[in-house]
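STRUCTURE:
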């Protein structure tokens, strides 16, 4: 384990990489100082920097916590099912997020109030 992770109180306990075309997804289970487990999903894409004339990896990371797993799993399954079948889930009644920043802020406020 890296010393950096030990100092932050985070320990990797499980890791799985999925290669998908030009991207790689990393699913890492970590533990906090209090022995709580959480999941990080990292998307890594290889990019070329023309200014420095070399490749680098662009990474985006999402942290998922145990208390949200069921909701996230259902939303992911609903989205995959919609892509595969075109069918909306029975409980689908959400409107898409607006494109502008002011509308997006109000949309998030309404979403939080309805949870």
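SEQUENCE:
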């Amino acid at each position: 384990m890296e010393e950096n992770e030990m100092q932050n109180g985070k320990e990797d306990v499980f890791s799985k990489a999925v290669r998908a075309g030009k991207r790689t997804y990393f699913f890492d289970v970590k533990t906090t100082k209090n022995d709580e487990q959480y999941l990080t999903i990292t998307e890594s894409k290889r990019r070329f920097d023309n200014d420095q004339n070399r490749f680098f990896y662009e990474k985006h990371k999402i942290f998922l916590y145990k208390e949200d797993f069921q909701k996230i799993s259902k939303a992911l399954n609903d989205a995959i099912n919609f892509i595969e079948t075109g069918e909306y889930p029975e409980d689908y009644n959400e409107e898409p997020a607006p494109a502008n920043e002011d509308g997006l802020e109000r949309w998030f406020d309404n979403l939080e109030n309805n949870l």
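REMARK: Residues 32 and 98 are 36 Å apart (CA to CA).
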